């Protein structure tokens, strides 16, 4: 059992007051807060061993390189992969762009890519780039409860399909998709399977040996780590075949006047001086999550999510979007007659931080026929008391707008 | 922020709808949140004879536009050119937090761009800078 009260002691920001109320931070699908272990780790780097990596022969550079590569090792272990299969990027978006640019070079007219309607813009917009090459972008639908229409997906994946790229967990609907099955469908058709793990890796055990997908993208800042660090996992053989997207220092083996040869994986994807401090900080975030245990993280969020849905569902005028059986801790909702921005502003007045807007999923918003939604999303430090405050806040919104009874 | 008059304008916006007979219509959205406003203008002798709007969005963006349209009828293009952020904030009369400023100003941005678009379509000289609304 997670002791959220105890965990909160590690997060200085959660002691903050917002509009004279104790902050209830329920916007974790956007970004999570950072424990002092992560903040201290970054400070320690700058205070004690700041140096560039992979090139200096001096002590500081050695220490920095060791810490940087140590984070890679921790990250690999976290998703049950090998260190050389872990590429550090800027964020999930950049990780997916590396693949999309590679696809742009290699895919041909008549090839097809399959995504789903519940994707974040970062897993749609990069693939749209391929359309100008004559590649077709197919979009799998969802069922009424917000789960993926797997039959529809199956029908879209054909011999023409080269890439299937699907969110492991939806940032809007909360739905957890059966990526193992999706991987099998992709591989049966000879296609590559890409998982957008931005909303899954932070919240549940993810084991790439079991899932057997080719690529996985996720972000540090959604799992207690600093912003500015993303991860691209790729199966060793796959990564070897991907052309690097950024070129320059550190990603090369040899450079001549007109040509250059690439460094080994994963370094061939990490051109230029990387974000050393934040990679090291991310390692501390992985340590922190390991200490809690990802099974425990998942259990805690399941409990909070169930509680939130149970409390919110009976409120008249409130609709929850996304009630799939397998779901994570993002609960999107609307209140009849009130725009989500107004919900968020009134809740902010109560010290409750939620997200409102299209949540970088405009095609999904159009499909759900809503202009925007409000969303509460949970993490290791959230408590049922905060959900109770959310419920009181929702009632206040209704009172101000005089909707329902 | 949610004063009675704001909520009243949100629920029952003034000058809501479209204009059959119009000089220009112009649609603008707030890419951050998806709020959309379309303004319809009937302009005669360089003055706004009639105005309507339709839109989708939060209470702040819709109420601000409703309040704005009440003030625009009869105003000349030159007068509208001079309208700024403070004009709208005075109309709203409540404190607008920085995060909601774009909502509050969507209506006036749409209105000024509509006028700019109208002038361009009339082959009249117009400087785009005169029709921008600073939100900072």
Question: Main traits of this protein?
Answer:
heterodimer; A: 405 residues; alpha/beta; Aspartate Aminotransferase, domain 1; Aspartate Aminotransferase, domain 2; 2 domains; 7-stranded mixed β-sheet; 14 helices; 17% strand; B: 136 residues; alpha+beta; Sufe protein. Chain: A; 3-stranded antiparallel β-sheet; 5 helices; globular
Q: Could you explain how this protein is built, in words?
A:
Chain A has helices spanning 4-8, 36-49, 59-78, 92-106, 125-128, 150-156, 179-188, 208-211, 236-241, 276-292, 294-312, 340-349, 362-368, 384-401, and strands at residues 17-18, 21-22, 24-25, 86-89, 112-116, 136-140, 161-167, 192-196, 215-219, 230-234, 252-255, 260-262, 318-321, 330-335, 352-353, 355-357, 373-377. Chain A is an alpha/beta fold and 405 residues long. Chain A folds into two domains: 4-32 and 293-399, Aspartate Aminotransferase, domain 1 (Alpha-Beta Complex), CATH 3.90.1150; 40-291, Type I PLP-dependent aspartate aminotransferase-like (Major domain) (Aspartate Aminotransferase, domain 2), CATH 3.40.640.10. In chain A, the strands form five sheets. Chain A has a seven-stranded mixed beta sheet, sandwiched between helices. In chain A, strands 13-14-17-16 form a four-stranded antiparallel beta sheet, covered by helices on one side. Chain A has a two-stranded antiparallel sheet with strand order 1-2. In chain A, a hairpin with a 2-residue loop joins strand 1 (17-18) and strand 2 (21-22). In chain A, helix 2 runs antiparallel to helix 10 (276-292) and helix 12 (340-349) packs across helix 14 (384-401). The longest helix of chain A is centred in the first third of the chain and has 20 residues, at 59-78. Chain A is globular and about 70 Å long. The model of chain A has no long low-confidence stretch (mean pLDDT 96). By secondary structure, chain B is α+β, with helices and mostly antiparallel strands. Chain B has a single domain, classed as Sufe protein. Chain: A, CATH 3.90.1010.10. Chain B has helices at residues 4-11, 59-72, 77-81, 85-92, 101-121, and strands at 24-29, 36-44, 47-56. In chain B, a hairpin with a 6-residue loop joins strand 1 (24-29) and strand 2. In chain B, helix 2 (59-72) crosses helix 4 (85-92) and helix 2 crosses helix 5 (101-121). The model of chain B has no long low-confidence stretch (mean pLDDT 93). The interface between A and B is medium-sized, with 17 and 17 residues.
